[in-house]
Amino acid sequence: xxxxxxxxxxxxxxxxxxxxxxxxxxxxxxxxxxxxxxxxxxxxxxxxxxxxxxxxxxxxxxxxxxxxxxxxxxxxxxxxxxxxxxxxxxxxxxxxxxxxxxxxxxxxxxxxxxxxxxxxxxxxxxxxxxxxxxxxxxxxxxxxxxxxxxxxxxxxxxxxxxxxxxxxxxxxxxxxxxxxxxxxxxxxxxxxxxxxxxxxxxxxxxxxxxxxxxxxxxxxxxxxxxxxxxxxxxxxxxxxxxxxxxxxxxxxxxxxxxxxxxxxxxxxxxxxxxxxxxxxxxxxxxxxxxxxxxxxxxxxxxxxxxxxxxxxxxxxxxxxxxxxxxxxxxxxxxxxxxxxxxxxxxxxxxxxxxxxxxxxxxxxxxxxxxxxxxxxxxxxxxxxxxxxxxxxxxxxxxxxxxxxxxxxxxxxxxxxxxxxxxxxxxxxxxxxxxxxxxxxxxxxxxxxxxxxxxxxxxxxxxxxxxxxxxxxxxxxxxxxxxxxxxxxxxxxxxxxxxxxxxxxxxxxxxxxxxxxxxxxxxxxx
Length: 525
Ligand code: B12
Ligand code: SF4
Description:
Shape: globular
Strand order of the largest sheet: 2-1-3-4-5-6
Bound molecules: cobalamin, iron/sulfur cluster
Strand content: 5-15%
Number of strands: 14
């Protein structure tokens, strides 16, 4: 049987990274079936397009995965597939919480023939075999022989064959420049950001978050060896195609068990498996100097920190009191000292937010090392404690907001400002943090650093700007380039000077810290 796994586009930006679930399920598919992958973010497709694809390729089963914000598109695509007579199975965080909606048991239209609840690592092979026999069941739940929920331990993690997967749709280097860039240094003909997980689960239970409910509060890890082997595979692939490969460790809190994270990073260093990487780590775990040394030494470049708010009352409200705004600056300085920078994520529209929250937050951000601030609105995702609290209080203005997705729009009333005021605050955050002046300032703040770092922060800022400001066509890009021409000319002028790139960061930072070096040697012996 031929299977199509499809992830809908998010309708706003093109995602810069493929979704792991597709590669994972492909690797877990029993032999004898062929699996095709289409990520709508990389290959845009509409309803007629997917129906045509399914017919032309003689697909026998379609699997669709989606977060809440893409679910409306996911349902439309599922309807189009089902109209061709091909069954659809849906999975992922949204349908796990809203299975009745997907199956049409809530009075609405049925969109899926089957729903895979929760982590589908163990149920997927069963789903495929049932579909091949024409005996799909409505619901697949990950349970053991006694009917108890069971979660994969991750100790037996499948090998994702990165060396042979068709990754053409995920090359971030424009086709026209690829051949020329292949010849630069070790080669830049391709640049890909690949998702890798080293563990699942987070016990913190922040009120707005799906993760603790979905993956559970029991944290599970892959073996160091399996993660290291995956990185080595990715590095080999990059080398073979004269390109670059960076990794996003998609664990919800990559350092949730600091001892284990250190041991993984040491093993990565010892095996020479360093790649440039990004990971999500909460601020409280970045107090540990040795951890931060190891992050830098193992290739860590950007850390995503869910700061959420600079107001401790807000943090307490959403059960994230372990975040201490008073230490944010110190944490960011600690990272910047090692040339590691942060993606700092803020949520506006919290219950204690008042008009002016954007300016207050930006005021702090301006005093920090340069990073990539992002701003969102508090969103009640289905089945989260936040959703239940707001529903009970009668504060949901669009209880099924996902049925008509509107980017950057609230679905409940904040307590101390209006919805429109909250929207204006988010707008101000993005406008000011990504203005040409702010970009120039971020670049200048690294004037004492090699040129490579300044180019890096500039390019990252330009890309992150696209999360809020649509930059889909050539015209939109031309406008951004024109607005930032002064900074661009300055960087180009410097780049053309003889020796400008000397002292630029090594592709992989050398182990600078003697303690780390010592540990790495111990790990090898
Ligand atoms: C990586 C990631 C991203 C990436 C993008 C996704 C990507 N390209 O990988 C980035 C950083 C861009 C991102 C952004 C956002 N994200 Co995000 N992200 C994640 C994260 C950390 C990991 C996803 C992952 O790969 N997990 C590991 C895989 C193996 O798990 P999985 O995807 O759930 O798949 C398993 C099952 O769900 C199931 N399954 C999944 N799909 C399918 C399909 C079929 C057919 C079947 C059978 C089974 C199945 O099987 C898989 C194996 O067990 C998750 C949290 C998490 N730990 O999952 C949040 C998460 C998915 N994100 C979330 C959110 C809210 C967002 C944002 C909206 C945040 C924001 N406020 O801006 C944005 C919007 C993204 C956008 N514009 O499209 C929420 C989604 C909640 C929900 N109900 O939808 C999550 C769960 C985190 C949270 N805080 O609650 N995100
Ligand atoms: S720390 Fe992050 S992953 Fe964990 S519950 Fe809070 S928001 Fe979710």
